C-alpha cells in the first residue's frame, strides 16, 4: 500500500538522540488519489483487516527499512489524541535509554501492555488465540463505543450484502448485539442489530451466494456470506439470539438455566457447551439440571448382536449414556444410582482401554477404546460417590425390573412401606396403592377373550425381549423395542414401561416420601390453582368409571394439587387434568405424580406455563414440517395457522382429548419412548391421510370437522378394553360415519413415512421458531397496549406505535448493561400487558430529552425528573408507557390551560422537592420588580390602564372557583413560583419570538408577584375571606401600586394593626397564573401553536442508541478512572 508521509516539521517528534541517528515518531496518512484509491478499494473488498488505516503513528528507526506501527485511527481527531498521549506519557521517558534497540523494545512493550490493560485478560485467555482476540476486542470497543459491560463473544470475517454489492468486513457477535464494520471505497459502514429485535435467523441462499445467513428485523433483512466456517458462525448466532431473547423477553423460563443468568460471564465456549448440553438432554430426555461433562468415542459390548457396537459415551452429573453411531441401532441410559461399581480392566489388543460398569440388576456394561480412560474413571467414581452420599437409602436396594419376579413395590417402596403407611394413616391421606385401571377393570364385554389372547401374545413378546435386552431402566434400546412399542404396550406393562422410558423411576426411587409430604403440605390450602383444579376434576375422562367415583377424583385432586405445590411457576394448566387422569389409570398414584413431573419439566419443556411458549414453538415447527413433508397441502392451505390451532390440543394432551382412549394410550406409549418426535410424525400421518379432503375443504370450520371425524374413528381393535367415547371430539350423528382407521396402522405409517427427523433437527427448528414465537408475543403485547392507550390520546396510531418502540428500546438499553437483577424487576410476562415494560427516572429523562417539545437547555434534565415524580403515582420509581404517552399528549396536543396546569403541577410537591424549592432564584432582572408600573401597550400605540382589566380578571376567577367541581390544586409558594418562572424563561430560549416572550413573561411575573404580595398582606392584616367587594375603600397608608388590588380584599378595621409578614404566607393559585398568562397574546400563541411529534420521533430513532451508549461509555470510563 502506498503511504505518503506528512511533513516532518509538523508531525514528527524526535527521540532521545540528536542528529541523523535520531529516533522519530511519524504520523502518516493514506494517499487517496488515482490508482491508489482503486488499490485501497480492492484491499477493502478482499479483506478489511488487511487495509491500512487512514492515519497511523509509526516509530522510525534511522538506518532500518522497518517501521513499527504504534497507533492507528480512522480520523485526524482520533490520531491526534494518540499523539498527545505520546507527548505527555512516553517521549520524555525515552532519554533514559542508551541505544535504539532498548527504546524500540520499550515502546513496543508499552503499547502491548496498554492493549492488554484496556481489554479483559480473563476474556482473552478463554479464547483459542488470545492475541488476536485482544486486537479484535480493541477494535470492537473503539468502533462501536459500547460500555464495558457489552462483552464480545466472537468475531468473523465475512461480507454484508447491500443490494447486489457485497461489503467485506468484520462481524462482531456480543452478548446483546450483532455488529458489522466495513471500510469500503473510503466509506465507513457500521451496522448494529440488537438480538432482541431479530425476528428471524436462517441460513438461505441468494442469486450470488449459495450459503448465506439472513438476519431479519421488523424493518429490514441483512444477508451475510463468505464465512470461513458458516456452520459455526450460524450456530453461535442462533445461540446468542436464543439466550438474549429468553433472558429479556421470557425470563420466567430462563431462570431455570442459572449458568447464563449473568451475561457478562458468557463466552463462546459456554454457548457451545450450552448447545451440546441441551441436545444431550433432549436426546436422552434427562432432567434440565443435568450437566454434560465428557463426550468420548468408544465401543459397547452388545450381547444381542454378539459384538462391540461403535458409538459415543456421554457422562453427566448423574448418568452414563451411550448412543451408537448408526442411528437407532442401540441406546443405553445408566443412572449412577443404579451402578454398583466402575472398574478398569486389563488393556489388551482385543480389548483396548476397557472399563466395566456393573449395575444392581446383576448386569455389566463393557466399554472399550476409551482414549483418556484413567481420567474418565476417576471423574465417574467421584460423581458416583456424590450420588451415593445424597441417596444413602440405596443400600437397601431399589432396582426396578419387569417380570414375574418383580417385587410388589417398585423402587424404595419395599423398604419404606411401613413408614409410609403409618404416615398416611396419621394424615388421613390414603394414596392409591394400585393403578385405577385394576380397580375399575370391566369384564364381560364381547370380544374380551380374543383381546386377552392378543394381550398374552404381546406380553410373551415383551418377556422374550427383556431376557435378551434387559428389563430395567438400563435396558438396551434398539429398533426392535421401538417396533414393539408401536404395536402397543400390553395393559399390564404399560405403566411400568412408561416409568422406565421416561426415567421417572429414578426420580421416584431418589425421593422416598417426597410425594406424601407434598400432599400433606398442599391439601386444604386455598389458592387460584386449587380453584382451577376443582373446576376441572369432573371434566377429566368423565366417561371412564374410574372418574365417576370419589376414589379416582380424590387421587386426581391429590396429584394435581401436589404438583402445583411443587412447581408454583407452572401451578396448574388446563390439559394437565386429562393427562394425569390417564397416568392414574396405568400407574400407582405416586408413580403418576413422577410421570407428570417428567412430562411437564423435561419431555414437554415450557408447555405448561403462563404463555405455553413451548407448545406454540412446536406448533410453529409443525407448520414447517407440513411445508416440507406435505407441500401440496401447504400450497392449498396458504395460512397454516388454522391447522396449527386445530393441532394445538394434539400436542397439549398427546391426542388424549380427541381420540378414543383405547387408541390414544398407544400414542402415549410412543411419546414416552420417542418423545415429541412421535407426536410430530403422527400429526403428519393424520394430515396425509386426510390431505384430499382437506384440500377440498372450503373453510377452517370444515377442515376442523374433517380431522375431528377422522380422529373419532381411530380404533384399537386389539385393545382388551371396551370402547370409551370421547366427549371432547366433534361429531354429528347426521353425517355418515368416517371409515375406521386402526391406530397400529396409523402409527406404523407415521414411523415409515415421517420418522426420519432426528432430535438434533427438531431442536434446531425449535431454536429458529422460538424467536418467531417470542416476537409474536411482543407484537401482541404492543397491540394490546396501544388499544388501551389510543382512545385517551390524540396522537396518530402510527406515531404512537413508534413511541412505544422507543419506550421499549429504552427499557431494553437499560437491561443490557444494568446487571442481572434489572430484568426481572422490570419485565414480567405474567403481568397485564400495559405493565410489562416500565422505565425508571434515568430512562425517562433520556426519552424526555429526545421527545419533549419543552426544551429548556440545562434545565431540561431537572424538568424531566420532576415530570417523572409527577407521573409515578404509586412511588415505585417506575412508570408505564401509558403515563409517558399521556404526558406527551398534553405537551403536544393539549389546550393551553392543560399545558399550564401540567407546568403548574411540575412546580409543586410531589414533583418539586424541598431541595429544588430552596435553590437560588435566577430572577434578578429589574423587569420583575413589583414597583414597575403595570401598563400594557397595544399595537396601535395606545396604552390601557391595567387596573380595570385586573379587577375583572380576579372577579371572573372567583366566580369560576365557586362553580368548579374538580379538586382544587394547592397554591404555589414564592419559592415554587420562582422555579416556575425559571422554567418559563428556559423554555423561551432560542424561540423566534424570544424577545416578545421575555417581555410578556416579565409583565406577567410582575403582576403575579404583586398578587402574591397583596394576598400576603391581607393575611397579615387578619383577613380570612377570599370574597371580593367593590364597596370597601383601601387603607390611607396603602401605596399607589397596591391600590390596584383594593377591590380584591376586604378592608380591615381602621384600628387594626398589621401583623408581621412571613415568607410562607406568599401564595399564588393556578387560576391566577392561567388568567395572567392569557392576557399576553405572545404567550398564548406560544402555548397554542401546533406541534408535530413525527420529527422528534425520527430524530429519536436515529440518536436514542448513540446517546445511550455514549453516555454509558463515558460513565463507565469515569468509574474506571475513579476506581484506579
UniProtKB/TrEMBL annotation:
InterPro entries reported in the protein's UniProt record: EF-hand-dom_pair, GRAM, PH-like_dom_sf, Rab-GAP-TBC_dom, Rab-GAP_TBC_sf, TBC1D8_PH-GRAM1, TBC1D8_PH-GRAM2
Assigned keywords, A-Z: GTPase activation, Repeat
A GO molecular-function annotation: GTPase activator activity
Transmembrane stretches, start-end: none
Gene Ontology process terms (BP): system process
PROSITE patterns: TBC_RABGAP (PS50086)
Domain Rab-GAP TBC: 488-675
PANTHER family to which the protein is assigned, alphabetical: PROTEIN VASCULAR ASSOCIATED DEATH 1, CHLOROPLASTIC (PTHR47666), TBC1 DOMAIN FAMILY MEMBER 8 ISOFORM X1 (PTHR47666:SF2)
Protein role: May act as a GTPase-activating protein for Rab family protein(s).
Name of the protein described by the UniProt record: TBC1 domain family member 8
Organism this protein belongs to: Zonotrichia albicollis
Higher taxonomy: Eukaryota, Metazoa, Chordata, Craniata, Vertebrata
Amino acid at each position: 500500500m502506498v503511504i505518503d508521509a506528512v511533513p516532518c516539521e509538523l508531525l514528527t517528534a524526535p527521540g532521545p538522540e540528536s542528529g541523523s541517528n535520531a529516533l522519530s515518531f511519524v504520523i502518516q496518512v493514506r494517499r487517496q488519489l488515482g490508482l491508489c484509491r482503486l488499490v485501497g478499494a480492492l484491499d477493502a473488498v478482499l479483506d478489511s483487516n488487511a487495509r491500512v488505516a487512514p492515519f497511523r503513528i509509526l516509530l522510525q528507526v534511522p538506518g532500518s527499512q522497518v517501521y513499527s506501527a504504534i497507533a492507528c485511527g480512522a480520523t485526524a481527531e482520533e490520531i491526534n489524541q494518540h499523539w498527545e498521549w505520546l507527548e505527555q506519557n512516553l517521549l520524555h521517558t525515552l532519554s533514559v535509554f542508551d541505544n535504539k534497540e532498548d527504546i524500540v523494545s520499550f515502546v513496543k512493550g508499552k503499547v502491548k501492555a496498554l492493549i492488554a490493560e484496556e481489554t479483559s485478560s480473563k476474556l482473552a485467555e478463554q479464547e483459542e488465540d488470545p492475541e488476536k482476540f485482544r486486537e479484535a476486542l480493541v477494535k470492537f470497543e473503539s468502533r462501536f463505543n459500547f460500555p464495558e459491560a457489552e462483552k464480545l463473544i466472537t468475531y468473523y470475517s465475512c461480507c454484508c450484502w447491500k443490494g447486489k454489492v457485497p461489503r467485506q468486513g468484520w462481524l462482531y457477535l456480543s452478548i446483546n448485539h450483532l455488529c458489522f464494520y466495513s471500510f469500503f471505497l473510503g466509506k465507513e459502514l457500521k451496522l448494529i442489530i440488537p438480538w432482541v429485535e431479530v425476528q428471524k435467523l436462517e441460513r438461505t441462499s441468494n442469486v450470488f451466494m449459495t450459503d448465506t445467513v439472513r438476519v431479519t428485523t421488523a424493518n429490514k433483512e441483512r444477508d451475510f456470506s463468505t464465512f470461513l466456517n458458516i456452520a459455526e458462525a450460524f450456530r453461535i448466532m442462533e445461540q446468542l439470539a436464543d439466550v438474549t431473547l429468553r433472558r429479556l423477553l421470557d425470563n420466567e423460563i430462563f431462570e431455570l438455566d442459572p449458568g447464563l443468568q449473568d451475561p457478562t460471564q458468557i463466552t463462546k465456549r459456554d454457548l457451545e457447551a450450552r448447545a451440546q448440553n441441551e441436545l444431550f438432554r433432549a436426546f436422552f430426555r434427562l432432567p434440565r439440571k443435568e450437566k454434560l461433562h465428557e463426550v468420548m468415542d468408544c465401543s459397547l459390548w452388545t450381547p444381542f448382536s454378539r459384538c462391540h457396537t461403535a458409538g459415543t459415551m456421554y457422562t453427566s452429573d448423574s448418568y452414563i449414556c451411550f448412543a451408537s453411531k448408526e442411528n437407532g441401532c442401540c441406546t443405553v441410559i445408566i443412572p449412577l444410582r443404579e451402578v454398583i461399581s466402575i472398574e478398569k480392566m486389563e488393556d489388551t489388543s482385543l480389548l483396548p482401554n476397557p472399563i466395566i460398569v456393573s449395575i444392581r440388576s446383576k448386569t455389566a456394561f463393557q466399554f472399550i477404546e476409551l482414549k483418556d480412560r484413567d481420567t474418565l474413571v476417576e471423574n465417574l467414581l467421584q460423581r458416583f460417590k456424590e450420588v451415593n452420599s445424597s441417596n444413602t437409602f440405596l443400600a437397601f436396594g431399589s432396582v426396578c425390573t419387569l417380570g414375574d419376579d418383580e417385587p410388589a413395590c417398585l423402587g424404595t417402596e419395599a423398604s419404606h412401606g411401613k413408614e409410609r403407611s403409618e404416615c398416611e394413616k396419621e394424615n388421613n391421606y390414603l394414596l392409591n396403592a394400585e393403578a385405577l385401571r385394576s380397580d375399575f377393570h370391566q369384564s364381560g364385554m364381547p370380544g374380551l377373550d380374543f383381546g386377552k389372547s392378543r394381550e398374552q401374545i404381546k406380553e410373551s413378546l415383551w418377556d422374550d425381549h427383556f431376557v435378551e435386552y434387559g428389563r430395567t431402566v438400563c435396558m438396551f434400546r434398539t429398533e426392535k423395542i421401538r417396533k414393539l412399542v408401536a404395536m402397543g404396550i400390553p395393559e399390564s406393562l404399560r405403566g411400568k414401561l412408561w416409568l422406565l422410558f421416561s426415567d421417572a423411576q429414578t426420580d421416584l426411587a431418589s425421593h422416598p416420601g417426597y410425594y406424601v409430604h407434598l400432599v400433606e403440605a398442599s391439601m386444604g390450602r386455598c389458592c387460584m390453582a386449587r380453584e382451577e383444579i376443582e373446576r376441572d376434576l369432573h371434566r377429566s375422562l368423565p366417561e371412564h368409571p374410574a372418574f365417576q367415583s370419589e376414589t379416582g377424583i380424590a387421587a386426581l385432586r391429590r396429584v394435581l394439587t401436589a404438583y402445583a405445590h411443587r412447581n408454583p411457576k407452572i401451578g396448574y394448566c388446563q390439559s394437565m387434568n386429562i393427562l394425569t387422569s390417564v397416568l392414574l389409570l396405568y400407574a400407582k398414584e405416586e408413580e403418576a405424580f413422577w410421570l407428570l413431573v417428567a412430562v411437564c419439566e423435561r419431555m414437554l419443556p415450557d408447555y405448561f406455563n403462563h404463555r405455553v411458549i413451548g407448545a406454540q414453538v412446536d406448533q410453529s415447527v409443525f407448520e414447517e414440517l407440513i411445508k416440507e413433508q406435505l407441500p401440496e397441502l401447504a400450497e392449498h392451505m396458504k395460512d397454516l395457522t388454522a391447522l396449527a390451532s386445530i393441532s394445538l390440543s394434539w400436542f397439549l394432551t398427546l391426542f388424549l382429548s380427541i381420540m378414543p382412549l383405547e387408541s390414544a394410550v398407544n400414542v402415549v406409549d410412543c411419546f414416552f419412548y420417542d418423545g415429541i418426535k412421535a407426536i410430530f410424525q403422527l400429526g403428519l400421518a393424520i394430515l396425509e391421510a386426510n390431505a384430499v379432503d382437506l384440500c377440498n375443504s372450503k373453510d377452517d370450520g370444515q377442515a376442523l370437522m374433517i380431522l375431528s371425524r377422522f380422529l373419532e374413528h381411530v380404533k384399537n381393535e386389539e385393545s382388551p378394553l371396551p370402547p370409551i367415547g370421547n366427549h371432547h371430539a366433534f361429531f354429528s350423528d347426521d353425517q355418515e360415519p368416517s371409515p375406521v382407521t386402526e391406530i397400529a396402522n396409523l402409527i406404523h405409517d407415521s414411523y415409515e413415512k415421517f420418522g426420519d427427523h432426528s432430535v438434533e433437527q427438531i431442536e434446531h427448528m425449535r431454536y429458529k421458531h422460538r424467536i418467531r414465537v417470542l416476537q409474536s408475543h411482543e407484537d401482541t403485547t404492543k397491540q394490546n397496549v396501544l388499544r388501551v392507550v389510543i382512545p385517551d390520546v390524540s396522537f396518530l396510531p402510527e406515531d404512537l406505535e413508534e413511541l412505544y418502540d422507543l419506550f421499549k428500546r429504552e427499557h431494553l438499553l437499560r437491561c443490557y448493561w444494568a446487571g442481572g437483577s434489572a430484568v426481572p424487576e422490570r419485565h414480567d410476562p405474567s403481568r397485564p400487558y400495559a405493565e410489562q415494560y416500565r422505565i425508571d427516572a434515568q430512562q425517562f429523562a433520556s426519552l424526555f430529552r429526545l421527545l419533549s417539545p419543552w426544551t429548556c437547555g440545562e434545565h431540561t434534565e431537572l424538568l424531566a425528573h420532576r415530570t417523572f415524580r409527577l407521573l409515578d403515582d404509586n412511588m415505585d420509581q417506575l412508570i408505564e408507557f401509558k403515563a409517558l404517552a399521556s404526558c406527551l399528549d398534553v405537551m403536544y396536543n393539549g389546550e393551553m390551560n392543560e399545558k399550564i396546569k401540567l407546568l403548574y403541577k411540575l412546580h409543586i410537591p410531589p414533583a418539586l422537592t424541598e431541595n429544588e424549592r430552596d435553590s437560588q432564584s435566577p430572577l434578578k432582572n429589574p423587569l420583575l420588580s413589583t414597583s414597575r408600573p403595570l401598563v400594557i401597550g397595544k399595537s396601535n400605540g395606545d396604552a390601557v390602564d391595567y387596573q380595570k382589566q385586573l379587577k375583572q380578571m380576579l372577579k371572573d376567577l372567583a366566580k369560576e372557583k365557586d362553580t368548579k367541581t374538580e379538586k382544587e390544586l394547592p397554591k404555589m409558594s414564592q419559592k415554587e413560583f420562582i422555579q416556575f418562572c425559571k422554567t418559563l424563561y428556559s423554555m423561551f430560549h432560542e424561540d423566534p419570538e424570544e424577545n416578545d416572550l421575555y417581555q410578556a413573561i416579565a409583565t406577567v411575573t410582575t403582576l403575579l408577584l404583586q398578587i402574591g404580595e397583596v394576598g400576603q398582606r391581607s393575611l397579615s392584616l387578619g383577613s380570612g375571606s377570599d370574597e371580593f367587594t367593590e364597596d370597601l375603600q383601601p387603607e390611607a397608608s396603602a401605596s399607589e401600586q397596591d391600590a390596584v388590588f383594593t377591590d380584591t380584599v376586604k378592608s380591615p378595621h381602621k384600628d387594626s394593626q398589621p401583623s408581621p409578614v412571613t415568607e410562607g404566607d406568599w401564595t399564588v393559585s393556578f387560576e391566577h397564573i392561567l388568567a395572567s398568562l392569557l392576557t399576553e397574546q405572545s404567550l398564548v400563541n406560544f402555548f397554542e401553536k401546533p406541534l408535530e411529534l413525527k420529527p422528534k420521533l425520527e430524530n429519536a430513532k436515529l440518536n436514542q442508541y448513540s446517546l445511550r451508549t455514549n453516555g454509558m461509555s463515558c460513565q463507565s470510563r469515569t468509574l474506571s478512572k475513579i476506581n484506579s
